[in-house]
Amino acid sequence: AEARNLDETPERKHAALSYYRQAMLARKRFGMDRLSSYAGLYYDGERMPLQEELGEFDPWELADDEALVLAGGRIMRVELPEQFNVLALLRKVSTDHGESGVADQARYATGVYYQSRQQYLRALDEYEALREVFPDSKWSTNAFHQADAIREAQVQISQSGVQLSGRPAQVQVSYRNVDRIWFVARRIDLKGMLGE
């Protein structure tokens, strides 16, 4: 923090870069990407307990200063201290250092962070604000494409494990921007297929 006081440039670019880098390090440490990745790797021989536990939380309900973290072998919802508050650090860059040449990138990173937490409306607001304030920025072009991806109809069918015969089929589906989903079940000659 003391190094930021040494920045004598009129636009305070080095101070802004310092805050931005601090935000990106905090995101790497406390962002949903890291937790999702780690939870997906942990398998205890029968199940994926961290993945199951992560499923009990709704990241879109997190406040700006909150994150889900792995602590003591459990996933917890915590309030981040100021030096790790990703969104507060990014806002400091985009508001206090608007002329630094980094503010547009910080605004884009804010949208991406909201998007990673499935806070899509807030991400769209950030992308739109970026395009209004910095229309010629390369980050505005990226924001346009991210906003399109959020607005696209999406359906994801997850693996549900072994399906036993004689029982109703179970399908795990998550979706966004879709009113209806139709499924067609087809009988498969498994014996014939395996015999080939």
Description of the structure:
- This protein has 196 residues and is mainly alpha-helical.
- It has helices spanning 13-30, 32-41, 49-54, 86-96, 103-116, 120-133, 138-151, 190-195; strands at residues 66-71, 74-79, 154-158, 172-176.
- Strands 1-2 form a two-stranded antiparallel sheet.
- Helix 1 runs antiparallel to helix 4, helix 4 (86-96) runs antiparallel to helix 5 (103-116) and helix 5 (103-116) packs parallel to helix 7.
- The radius of gyration is 22 Å and the shape is elongated.
- The protein starts with 12 loop residues before the first helix and ends with a helix.
- The mean pLDDT is 89.
Output mean pLDDT.
89
Q: Ranges with pLDDT <50 over ≥5 residues?
A: none
Describe the global form: elongated
Task: Give the H and E element order.
Answer: HHHEEHHHHEEH
Number of strands: 4
Q: Could you give a short account of the major beta sheet?
A: 2 strands, antiparallel
Q: Strands of the largest sheet, in order across it?
A: 1-2
In terms of structural class, how would the helical and strand content be classed?
Answer: mainly alpha
Helical fraction equals: 40-55%
Count the DSSP helices. 8
> Gap between N and C termini, in Å?
68 Å
User: Mind telling me the C-alpha Rg?
Assistant: 22 Å
Strand content: 5-15%
